[in-house]
Specification:
By secondary structure, the chain is an alpha/beta fold. The protein contains 8 helices and 13 strands.
């Protein structure tokens, strides 16, 4: 096990047998000031994960001893709910579904962009903190009620459709974080739609129009070449 220490609230366990991939993951996460432990086998990673104390685990799907599915399954069987980002060269939909059903929280295919991997880790950290979130999300007068499943600006109901609500909730939960189209697509639509469609652009445009009509400031920013960012300008 290799450990990298730095001042950050997030402690990440990287379970990866390929040295070059592990080095890439560790280098990127370290640049974001995360504290990193690395395990090179499923047995070693499982033993560390069972000790607890990790905020997120990145888990290789195919390991030389215990398969990644068995690792995450063993964690969930022991009621350890640490968010798990599964990473695999197996990219078809069935494999993604298997990984998620086994207990993974997100699934990233190889080869991957290091900055997207780090962004997914950050999103999982945010999700993990949702248990202590208030029932309402608020950004500059915009209020999203997670119980009633609606959103208001001032006294005006935005009258969101279900998919628009899911999209706005995902954006607000990750306010201030650049979200790629893939991340938005997977969070809102899942894996059974073609990410090459313009679904995201259509729904973003619809949300922007409803926010503008309600008098809300422009909160959805397009990050050229990356995706979208939600938050005060």
């Amino acid at each position: 096990m290799n450990a990298t220490t730095s001042a950050h609230s997030g402690r990440i366990l990287v379970i990866e047998d390929d040295d070059s991939t592990a080095e890439e993951i560790v280098a990127e996460l370290t640049s974001h000031a995360f504290r990193i432990d690395r395990a090179g086998t499923g047995n070693e990673g499982l033993a560390l994960a069972l000790q607890g104390g990790y905020d997120v685990i990145t888990l290789d799907r195919m390991l030389p001893d215990i398969d990644g599915l068995n690792v995450v399954g063993a964690l969930r069987a022991r009621r350890i709910q640490t968010p798990v980002l599964m990473i695999s060269a197996l990219s078809d939909v069935d494999e993604r579904v298997r990984g998620l059903r086994a207990g993974g929280d997100d699934y990233l295919t190889k080869p991957f962009a290091s900055d997207e991997m780090a962004a997914r880790v950050e999103v999982l950290l945010r999700r993990h903190a949702q248990a202590s979130e208030p029932t309402q999300l608020r950004v500059r007068g915009l209020v999203l009620d997670r119980v009633a499943h609606n959103a208001f600006y001032g006294d005006l109901d935005l009258d969101l459709k279900p998919t628009e609500y899911q999209l706005l909730e995902f954006l607000m939960r990750n306010s201030g974080q650049t979200l790629t189209r893939t991340m938005i697509f997977e969070a809102v639509w899942g894996y059974h739609f073609d990410p090459g469609t313009n679904l995201i652009e259509v729904h973003i445009a619809g949300l922007r129009k409803k926010l503008e009509q309600a008098g809300c400031p422009a909160l959805i920013q397009t990050v050229r070449g990356s995706g979208y960012l939600f938050g005060p300008i």
